[in-house]
Amino acid sequence: MVDGEFIHPGFVFLFGSLLIPLLKGWLKRAYLLAISALSIALVATMQEGTYWQIDWLGVRMVLGRVDKLSLCFLWVFTIMAFLGTLYGLHRSEDGHHVAGFWYIGSSLGAVLAGDYLSLFTFWELMACSSVFLIWYRRRPESIRAGFRYLMVHVFGGLCLFFGMVFRYWQVGDFTFGPIPPGSAGVSDYLILSGFALNAAVVPLHAWLPDAYPEATVEGAVLLSAFTTKTAVYTLARAFSGYEVLALLGTLMTVYGVFYALIENDMRRVLAYHIVSQVGYMVAGVGIGTAMTINGACSHAFAHIIYKGLLFMGAGAVLYRMGTCKLSELGGLWRWMPWTMLFYIIGAVSISGFPLFSGFVSKNMTVSGAFDAGRPLLGIFMELAAIGTFLSVGLKVTAFAFFGEGGKEVKEAPWNMLLAMALASGICLFIGIYPHALYRLLPFEVEYHPYEVSKVLEVLQLLGFSGLVFFILKEKLRPEPKINLDLDFSYRMFTKYFMAFDRRVIALLDYLLGEVWKVVGMRGLYGGAEASDSFDRKAIDGVVDGMAYGVRTIGDRSRRLQWGSLQGYIALSTAIALLALILFALE
Amino acid sequence: MRKVLEILIRGKVYVRDICLLALLGLLILELPVKHHGRFWFERTYGFWSLFGIIGAFVLCKASKGIAHLFLSRGEDYYGGW
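YS: structure for the whole thing
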């Protein structure tokens, strides 16, 4: 695991997970936290460079590419790994912890990969390990959602696989680096689709709001952080400046909040918000200026922390209440005030209020869009910012934590609260001291978030949209319904395919069985009887006949041998004489 | 923590009034600010306030409207699929 100064943090998680089943109680918890903390320390001491180059089957694999872009994501991934581990510390199943560690480790591996072969390996490992975080909820819905999640990701993985193989045929190596938009061919667009699927780019997004709300309380926190942001990293690495990403990214920002406004399940609201927030990053990568790519990276950083925090809050509600459907919640401020406080800090951060992390990251992308001469994209991103505040900020808070209803429950466990408190602290720290974040970005930053006009712009935008919320509040009351999305296509296909299978295929199978019984079986019986009688009469007749013949000859010849030597000599002489006479007569 | 919240919720009316005053304050504060931006709307006074109102209204109405028109289904619509 060591190459000079470099220790791969992903392998620390992958191999570190092997000891988890051997430990018990506090020792195990301390161990889980120690591994996560160790990974942060490894990233903190990491130097830029290329490590762990392996020549394998004539292909050069690079497992440790450390530069500014990968370091930015490594920082936030390891911080989130620590927070997520702390949040899930109470979980008793070792398998859940192991799956979590494999998921985190393979994400780190994907970020550090410098070639497509190792990237693809970690990419698939991510999908296979993360699905257990859904299955461990053990509900029938979760099992099915997990299978759908896996199938969609296998499809995405195949796109990536074929893309990289075709690319290898064309260019002759697996190096994973920037592909200029002008020179991109079919293979590159296949790779792009594989990445876009993991980034939940509309229309390849439906797996995300389908699967994440079905995950375990602790698993959803991890899921919200790694898969989509690893994809954002790969897009930023290879596909910056692609117009299609700029357009689809902007579409995502609005599409996500649109659904978030009408969904009822708290975690599904948040899942749709991932689509919206990742939209800012994808659009930033697509516009492709230094400012927007910085915006995408800083937003990924800030987003991972506050979205993790929001999922922690929603998870704590689910953990205590047994549901997180807004139509069944209300008045939780009485019983879970700390959870509410931390949730609100996350909500205010995602909405982009000044002094919180979303403000210093999101506006970088939006300003970048305006500066790049893309006013329409910028305007739609601002519209999505309104929707974010309305749904995650106001709707969820108003209907889950305030209002009436709900039941008396205990506050969340200490480890959940501590993780939420730490995440809240990071949101505030980045908001107040943005240069700590800007220092990590891939390009030099010429951006000052706290200009009077920018602060006023955001406060007016959010303030007045909040006013509209309180006027329309009753209209936005969540209903116990689900909403159709593009997962409709494959879920209905499966449903109708199974119905077709059950009715038509099963009927055909039955009919064929009957026909076989009537025609086939009779034919078979007749054939068997005929062959039996042929066997008995014809074959046995011949064989038996030959046997009888042999026996008769044997019997006759036995009678010739009566045992008297004189008799034999007399008979032989007689035969010889007879032959002589016959010969002489001729 | 809970007590602070109780005080705030009991004084709901004051909180609302303070928020409304704050919104007014934002508009007043913007008066002396000199805007610099590439596009006309970035330089227009009160544009983002108006955009906030219209945007929020359109988003609420459009999302709820489309949901009620054809997106909304019963919770067991997929019947396990």
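YS: worth flagging: Chain A touches chain B through 57 residues (CB under 8 Å).
IM: good catch. Also Residues 487-560 of chain A form the longest helix (74 residues).
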